[in-house]
Design goal:
By secondary structure, the chain is mainly α. It is built from 10 helices and no strands. Helix 4 packs across helix 5.
Length: 253
């Protein structure tokens, strides 16, 4: 990861640039949804391709299995991500209602919670009391402080529908590429499989690089790690298909 120099850091931390960054909505959830969907889509699809090739299936069977799984599994994953994000949102809202009720019914007890929370951070005396007074003077700030400090909840608002759509789109887009060589006429099955493997490998590496870029990790290391994970899943699927072919004998077309 490239380190930012002091001069560039000073520019980034000017008051106007800090205000601009803090005003921006976080994009990490969309990136996470995309990376999750793309990796799973490519790994799942190429694993089916590898298993079917190892079992001796024809290109048509590989295509049917690949695309059927691509849509069904992509939809299933999108629904699962929708439910997960929706559950997170509902939990946040339930906790918000609880804190609003507590502040209404037992405000002094809630003020004491704020006092103890910030006392544990090292504040004391007049400074501590000023913090408590400032926070509890604003009902919204008071509630959000309790959600973050007492419950440990993220206050970022994420859309379950957006998460589901991003996951599905990334799953289908990345998962389609390893199937493309089997659509091309005139290529022998081994050549199609090699071409599919090359495409899958490039996707694994590219997604790993993207993940490293977004989360400030070493790009090459992140790309290679994702590539190795995807390759291991494909090798396992190929081995299973090949062993089943040997066990039951013959070529299935």
């Amino acid at each position: 990861m490239k380190k930012t120099g002091r001069k560039a850091l000073l520019k980034e931390h000017s008051p106007e640039n800090i205000a601009r960054r803090l005003a921006q909505k976080p994009e990490s959830q969309k990136v996470s949804d995309f990376v999750l969907g793309a990796i799973d889509g490519c790994i799942t699809t190429f694993a089916i391709v590898s298993g079917a090739f190892g079992a001796g299936f024809s290109p048509l069977v590989i295509l049917v299995m690949g695309f059927a799984n691509l849509l069904a599994d992509g939809f299933s994953m999108a629904v699962s991500n929708y439910e997960a994000v929706d559950a997170q949102r509902k939990h946040l809202e339930a906790a918000r209602r609880t804190e609003e009720r507590h502040i209404k019914l037992v405000p002094e007890g809630e003020r004491e919670e704020v006092r103890q929370i910030f006392a544990s951070k090292g504040f004391s005396g007049a400074t501590l009391e000023k913090i408590v007074t400032t926070i509890t003077a604003n009902r919204k700030l008071w509630v959000e402080t309790m959600l973050a400090e007492e419950y440990g909840l993220s206050l970022e608002r994420f859309s379950p529908v957006t998460s589901a759509l991003v996951t599905f789109a990334a799953f289908v887009a990345a998962g389609t590429l390893p199937l493309l060589p089997f659509v091309l006429p005139g290529l022998a099955l081994p050549t199609q499989f090699v071409a599919s493997g090359i495409l899958a490998g490039l996707i694994f590496f590219a997604i790993g690089m993207l993940k490293g870029l977004v989360y400030s990790q070493q790009l090459l290391r992140s790309g290679v790690t994702t590539f190795l994970m995807g390759s291991a899943a494909a090798a396992l699927a190929f081995l299973v298909g090949y062993l089943l072919r040997l066990l039951f004998g013959g070529e299935i077309s």
